[in-house]
Specification:
235 residues, alpha/beta, Rossmann fold, four-stranded parallel beta sheet, globular
Length: 235
């Protein structure tokens, strides 16, 4: 199987270790991960802000870049949701677009549904709690796939997060356009995190983790944030 890594803009610019972690996990399982250097933005920010026409060339470029691969994996529920949910609606009747959308996976989907793996051979002796981000929870319907992967990690102390299915308040430009509402939602999320006593909050989207991490930092909380792929990459 030819697997391509779509790193996404946020990870490429701010969190390169997440992409390295995804590659390390898959290589540990015996797979080769390819990285098409011509990849760019998926167009989510443009489309979600009402600029669908500007997103169009990015959609076409993504499809052309990844069409030759058997699977595309991305450490971002929101970007995968863009490809799977919006691409077919932006290019109705285009079989190539539909095919690329179908074979684009968030990491836990690729591991659990496609490769049939829940134990990736990780060890992480820390107290961890998991936040299911909105795109992963509601559009991709990841369910408990990330939690199944985390439960299989040796020596992890995985604790439940209260109000886990509530939005953290980020929502891309929502946080910019509605700062007061966003801040209130973030405060609720941070309150729930504080109760867990976790060393780390993990999630499938570094964009949401940036928002939550900022809130935790401002209240001088002991909990740090990390993409769950980086937990799975430990051995």
């Amino acid at each position: 199987m030819r697997i391509a890594l779509f790193i996404t803009c946020v990870n490429d610019s701010l969190y390169p270790r997440t992409g390295i972690a995804v590659t390390r996990i898959l290589e540990r399982l015996g797979h080769t991960v390819e990285f098409p250097a011509s990849q760019t933005c998926c167009g989510q920010m443009h489309a979600n802000s009402g600029f669908a026409a500007m997103a169009g060339p990015l959609v076409d470029h993504f499809v052309a870049t990844f069409a030759e691969f058997d699977a595309v994996v991305a450490p971002s529920g929101s970007c995968v949701a863009m490809v799977r949910d919006q691409y077919p609606r932006m290019r109705p009747g285009d079989d190539t677009v539909a095919a690329v959308a179908t074979k684009t996976y968030e990491l836990s989907e690729l591991l659990v549904d496609v490769l049939g793996v829940t134990d990736v051979g990780a060890r992480f002796p820390h107290r961890v709690t998991y936040h299911p981000t909105c795109h992963g929870l509601r559009l991709l319907r990841l369910g408990d796939k990330p939690m199944r992967l985390l439960r299989a990690v040796r020596d992890i102390d995985l604790v439940e997060l209260g109000g886990a299915d509530e939005c953290c308040g980020f929502g891309g430009t929502f946080a910019l356009k509605n700062p007061d509402v966003s801040a209130a939602m973030l405060a609720d999320k941070c309150d729930h995190i504080d109760v867990t006593g976790a060393e780390l909050l993990v999630a499938a989207d570094n964009s949401c983790l940036t928002h939550i991490g900022g809130g935790l930092s401002r209240r001088a909380a002991a909990t740090r944030v990390m993409h769950y792929a980086e937990v799975l990459a430990h051995d």
